[in-house]
């Protein structure tokens, strides 16, 4: 099991958990980066190598299995993460990465945003592994279409890697994750299953298809409260220097969870700890990355 597998879809039984030494993390990251030029060359050759595809596919497959990530390993409840990112247009995926990088300047959520960037890297590598599996047995017409998807994935992967690699604290934060000394809440299997159900209902609210019920009332009141609180903060000059991102700063901060819990109490809405955390995660993702 690779380090990214452990971070994104942890084996809660700890049966296959591998302890990685801090000094080894930088080496793993550099080894992974060193594979990218060859991967780029092979993926560019692939559309013209249908008759000789086996050797190229085997080499690409080998590159997607390392101590950093085993992209071929099947994880519980990973499908939602990979498919939700694939549904976004390329430009929107790149924009989301840029917003996550921008969020790294907020100290309180820096680790959280590093983790989100690593999740995006994990998801695209998993999709590359999936494409390789399809390419092994598809016909020529489908082969070329999936080669295009591989090139698309590689372009996105490069964007994530380049942005991560520019961050001076990358290895330091990565080591914290490897040693389990981070302050990021990594969802349990129960929460990942719960997220699927709640996200389905939340998406209908965000699209305007549902305009009633407790969940709709909570989302509406939270949105109104953000506008009110951040407007007051600007007026009173509480949050100086970031007027254009004051709402972004608030939604990322610890006060946001307090706000959600207060509104739930106000409308007599009960929820388990897991349900509240999942709601906050989904709302944040929509507000910060998907809201028009």
Distance between the termini: 38 Å
Uncertain parts: 233-244
- The general outline is globular
Domain count, please report it: 2
Number of helices: 14
Strand content: under 5%
Share in helix = 55-70%
**Overall mean pLDDT:** 81
**What is the radius of gyration?**
21 Å
Main beta-sheet annotation = none
Structural class: mainly alpha
Described by its quaternary structure, the protein is single chain
Extended strand count:
0
Q: Write down the secondary-structure element order.
A: HHHHHHHHHHHHHH
Would you write up a description of this structure?
With 292 residues, this protein is an all-alpha fold. The protein folds into two domains: 3-178, no CATH class; 189-290, no CATH class. The protein is 68% helix and 0% strand. The chain contains 14 helices and no strands. It has helices spanning 3-8, 22-34, 36-45, 53-63, 79-86, 90-103, 110-135, 140-165, 170-178, 189-206, 214-235, 246-252, 255-266, 273-290. Helix 6 (90-103) runs parallel beside helix 8 and helix 11 packs across helix 13. The longest helix has 26 residues, at 110-135. It starts with a helix and ends with a helix. The relative contact order is 0.10. The model is unreliable at 233-244 (pLDDT under 50).
């Amino acid at each position: 099991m690779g380090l990214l597998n452990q971070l994104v879809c942890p084996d809660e039984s700890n049966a296959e958990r591998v302890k990685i030494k801090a000094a080894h993390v930088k080496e793993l990251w550099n080894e992974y980066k060193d594979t990218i030029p060859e991967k780029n060359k092979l993926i560019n050759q692939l559309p013209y190598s249908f008759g000789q595809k086996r050797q190229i596919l085997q080499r690409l497959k080998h590159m997607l299995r390392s101590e950093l990530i085993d992209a071929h390993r099947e994880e519980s409840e990973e499908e939602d993460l990979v498919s939700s990112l694939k549904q976004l247009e390329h430009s929107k995926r790149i924009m989301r990465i840029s917003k996550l990088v921008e969020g790294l300047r907020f100290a309180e959520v820096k680790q959280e945003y590093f983790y989100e960037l690593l999740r995006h890297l994990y998801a695209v590598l998993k999709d590359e592994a999936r494409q390789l599996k399809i390419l092994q047995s598809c016909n020529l017409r489908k082969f070329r279409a999936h080669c295009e998807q591989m090139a698309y994935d590689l372009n996105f992967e490069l964007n994530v890697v380049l942005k991560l690699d520019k961050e001076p604290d990358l290895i330091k934060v990565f080591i914290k994750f490897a040693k389990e000394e981070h302050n990021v809440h990594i969802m349990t299997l129960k929460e990942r299953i719960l997220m699927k159900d709640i996200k389905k209902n939340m998406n209908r609210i965000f699209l305007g298809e549902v305009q009633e019920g407790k969940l709709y009332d909570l989302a509406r009141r939270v949105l109104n409260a953000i506008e009110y609180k951040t407007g007051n903060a600007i007026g009173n000059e509480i949050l100086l220097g970031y007027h254009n991102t004051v709402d972004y700063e608030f939604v990322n901060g610890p006060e946001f969870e307090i706000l959600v819990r207060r509104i739930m109490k106000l409308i007599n809405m009960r929820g388990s700890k897991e349900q509240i955390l999942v709601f906050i995660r989904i709302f944040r993702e929509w507000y910060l990355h998907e809201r028009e």
